[in-house]
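Human: Here is a favour to ask of a fellow structure person. Comparing notes only helps if you start from a blank page. I am asking you to supply a protein in sequence and structure-token form. Write it directly below this note and I will take it from there.

Assistant:
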Amino acid sequence: MGKKRLLLLLEELIVPIARLCLRHSLKLNDIVRVWKHALVRVAQAELIANKEKVSVSRISLMTGVHRQDVTRLREEPVPLAQEKDLISRVLGQWQYDPRFITKSGKPRVLEAEGKDSEFAALVHSVSAEPNPYSVLYEMERSGVVERTPRGVKLKSRIHVASGGDMEEVLRMLAPDVADLSEAVYENLSGEDSIRNLHLRTEFNRVAEESVPEIKNWLLRQGSKFHKKVRDFLAKHDTDLNKKLKSKKTVRVVYGSFSRVDDL
């Protein structure tokens, strides 16, 4: 593919990002700084993945970013969007780890008081770093748990970003965009004989009065299928299935979305 054609396609890809920037009054200088930072991070990651020497000069040559900017940008912190979605991982552990479910397979009500509580053990089974009380506060704020006289009870099996919390929305959106783009690229490269799932269904003459019924149906059916996916993948996760002895593990992602738009 020629450079001119590639740039035209790139423009189509970043139009949604441009729309987001305008909605939140981000100016060109802000966007250029972020774009440079992203280029530097990706170049550094590529060099490390290929077991090549990482240097300011090489990164500058790969990206076109001035060496002084490369030095400065490498010292900047990783954006929030790159943080792992800890709450989603805690939710998954709560639903499938034998230590935190009942004999019938339902998430148990967990005692949450003190540093050695059952809830603290749940959080630390995912990561030793976070403060369990901070995680619990965020889960309560998001409406996925509730306190009962016996302890903390799981209300929702999925973590959905709060309506007005744009930072949380973007933090959840970023890995979706990254995984989708990589899945498409891997399919095109043909390196794996088994392709990644990439499907899209669209109808553009749908009756407007049917929208509530359609959206509710998609939410119900999509949630049911994601539950089936979680149940299936949990059997192959070494943290949840101790019978598995694999020395190497990988990350598996299954995502879906729906949207209604005026023509």
Summary: Residues 166-234 form one domain. The radius of gyration is 22 Å. The longest helix spans residues 166-189. The longest strand covers residues 145-148.
